[in-house]
Every structure is written in structure tokens, then in C-alpha cells.
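Subject: sequence -> C-alpha cells, single chain

Hey, anyone have a minute? Need the predicted structure for the following. Not urgent.
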Amino acid sequence: MGSEGPAALTIHVTGFKKFHGVSENPTETIVSNLKEYTKKKGLPKGVILGSCSVLETAGQGALASLYQTLQSALTGKDSESSSSRRIIWLHFGVNSGATRFAIEHQAVNEATFRCPDEMGWKPQKVPIFPADGGISHVRETSLPVKAITKALAKKGYEVIPSDDAGRFVCNYVYYHSLRFAEQNGTKSLFVHVPLFLTIDEETQMKFAASLLEVLASLCQ
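Reply:
Had a minute. Here:
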């Protein structure tokens, strides 16, 4: 007996600050405004929008704060016992050359930064997690990327599934988040968005809200 239906789904969201070549990161705006936006538009039934954090665009140097953010979902006031806890980490990052949204299926155990991150680190062919083995090791999300992409496309968004999150900070954070998710019974998803010059802010805010809806409907 006991509980009525599944536990609420808590979705925690992150974006990034500016970095080399991108002085205004759209994901900082999306994540900073998402709570207010969903307050006006309403959240899908059974969904709690958890923390909305903007991360430093850095790898190694920002790891402590990344893990603090990830850990907060497990120790926060909304957290329950691991058996009933339903948590998704939703990470947004910008791909300045993109013309559409991309739902990332996996992250690779390789840090090869094309330019230094915001803390001056520029690794080349370095394993993100040496204990996982070589730089070709891959971690995949347990969320249904194809179904998520299809549902968003049906809503009219230009969106594709992707198997390549790059080798810069986006991939670095996604790899750590996927590993953390596997160890803690949570889920993780990374989404690349274009610049606001390519797809305007209002459309991107709508996309983020639609993504919450899709995750809610697919994770019942």
C-alpha cells in the first residue's frame, strides 16, 4: 500500500557563464530565468523544478563547485530516500556554430580543450576520469534520447539527437554528471543550444519549458 503513484520528478538545471569567444552565454540567461518563466507558464504535473545553477566554464578548476552542486540534489530538502527519489540533472551548454538544438546521448572520457577554459586550463588528450580507463571510454545517458528528440520535433523545434558533445567543458561536465548519476541512482542529460542570434531567447525559453514537459511525460 502506502504511496499514491510515483514520487515527484525533480529536475535540477545548469547552464554556463561566458567563455572564450562567447561573451554572452545563452544558457546563463535560460537557467537564470527558468524559475520565473515556469512560474508564469506552469510546470508539468508531478514535476518539481529544483536548483537552477550557472556553472563556471571550466574543467578541473571548477570540479569542487560542480560536485557541490550535484551533491546538493541528494542532500537538499526535496531529497527522499534513494528508492523513491526521482532526480534528473539537465545541463544546458552553447554550441556557437549550431543552427538547432542537440540532445546529447553520451560523453567521452577525453578532455582536449581547443582554447583555455575560464581558469586557464587547456588539457590535450587527458582522460577526464583516469580510473575509467582510456580517452575512448564512453558514458551514455539512461534517458531515451531518440524519444525526447522526436517529442520535441513534434512540438515544432529544430532538434537532433547527437553522439558528440565535443571535448571541451560541456563534455567534461556531462561525463562527470553521468558518472555521478550512475553512482547515485539519478539521471543526467546534456542539451546543446545555439546562440540567441540563431534562435531567439523567447523560442529558447519555450524550448526549455517544453523539454521539462517531455521529460515529465517520458519519465512517468
